[in-house]
Amino acid sequence: EVVFNMDKYKFMYPFFVAGYLVAKNQEIIKDKLATIGVKWMFVGSVASYAVLFLFWNYDSYIYTSGYASIGRRDLIHQIGIDCYRMVIGFVGSAVIILAVKLIYDFIQSKCADKRWINRLVNAVSHIGEESLGIYIISGHMVEIFLIGNLDKMSVNYLNNILQTIIIGGVSYLLTYLIRK
Fold it and tell me: Is the pTM of this model over 0.85?
């Protein structure tokens, strides 16, 4: 029986909405980054993430405590867990995005031919536009094709990388075809 973990998708949905809003309001965000400075935003985000991580515990994992309020004995506690996950997720996302921005700016300043990096940025941006579909389809593919075989496999990082590339590529193509 395939369950598809639909309860996990609703946890990710706010992040996809945030991504959409960031893309829609990118000029305002660029102005704020220019005012405060990417380096200072990065330092502040890393510090915030470090403080938030001090409160991480077993209940923080979505796979152990779920993401639901109906039927919970301690509703307030579960709402606190869910809010904490959202905050640390957004701050962690900001750390990664700002780190990528700093690396991009550094490479741009050192690189004479900027065409290749602009192509890479465009490719990653396009994949980002399809990320909700990729996330959902890849989750189904992992459950259908891999979950039954996981107990037969040992940890093999090359195998994991290849599975990620193949499943990611097929998920992207299916998402692209569904959109058409």
Answer: no
